[in-house]
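can u do me a favor
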């Protein structure tokens, strides 16, 4: 029987979180999923969204995740994200500028490839802004 649940959130650049958690809720590609100690093992892809967890003291923490994968074991959740940021580290002004740039690209109706990239950038910016403004 696992005595604790460890959460690790890692990007190609660095480790963002490595700590004990009481509960983890992540944006799975097929919908949001929650994990407690002793959860059944599974692997899933992630979509852009908010990962939230309760740390060992019970305080709720939030991170922005930009896709990737989650591996759930009975005593550990590993998130391998393309990018991730703690809510406190999100630069609101930068996110708003990214949103404006993406909206401008979408309005210009450039090539199809640019449209897909602009839509993805807009989605990321909206999630960052929404998460940063949540209290």
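np, heres the sequence
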């Amino acid at each position: 029987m696992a005595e604790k649940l460890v959460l690790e959130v890692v990007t190609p650049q660095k480790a963002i979180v490595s700590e004990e958690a009481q509960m983890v809720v992540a944006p799975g590609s097929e919908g949001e999923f929650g994990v407690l100690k002793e959860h059944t093992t599974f692997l899933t892809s992630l979509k852009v969204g908010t990962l939230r967890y309760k740390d060992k003291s019970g305080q709720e923490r939030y991170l922005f995740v930009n896709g990737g994968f989650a591996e759930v074991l009975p005593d550990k959740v590993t998130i391998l994200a393309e990018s991730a940021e703690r809510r406190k580290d999100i630069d609101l002004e930068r996110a708003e500028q990214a949103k404006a740039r993406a909206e401008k690209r979408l309005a210009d109706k450039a090539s199809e490839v640019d449209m897909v990239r602009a839509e993805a950038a807009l989605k990321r910016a909206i999630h960052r802004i929404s998460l940063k403004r949540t209290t």
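The beta strands are 5-10, 15-28, 31-35, 42-46, 49-55, 60-65, 68-73, 76-81, 84-86. hope that helps!!
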